Each structure stands twice: as C-alpha cells, then as structure tokens.
Sequence to fold (91 residues):
Amino acid sequence: MKKIGTKLRVLRVLHGYSQEYVAHHLAMSQKSYSRLETDERMPTSYLAGLLSRLYHLPEGQLRRFLELKDQILLARLLTEGHIAPLHTHHL
Fold:
C-alpha cells in the first residue's frame, strides 16, 4: 500500500514540478511540503483543495486517489489525460 506522501510525490513528479514549486503554490515552505511527502504531516482539506487545482483534478478524485490502496486510479488518470506524464518544467 502506498502512503499518502508517496502518492503526492508521484503526482508532483508526473507533472514535472519541484517541491519548491508545489510549496510556493500551497503558500508554505519547501521543508513543510517535504513533510507531506514523507508522511510527517497530513494534508488538510484546504491543502487538498489547493493541490486539486494545481493538478487540475476534481477534489473528490484527488481524495480517492490518495485513499486508494493500489494504483488503479493513477493508471486511469494517465490514460484519460488528466495527468501528463513527466514534464520537465518547474524543476
């Protein structure tokens, strides 16, 4: 089972974003964002909303992805074009 932090990292990497870029979008430090990816901190509902907008996903879809115990939704998001694989901008 993937932890939420690992899934946040997968989304970030698939979009080609750096931790600094995502942290800036969330109005937090890179160190604070890093704590989300290492499961030292859980995203609040407010942060989940900001992440949904950043990744162009409906908030409910992001929440379901973070709660899944497997990667079925990730595969669906990739095939439906909701996530563009491995950009290189904002690195």
Observations:
- The chain is about 60% helix and 0% strand.
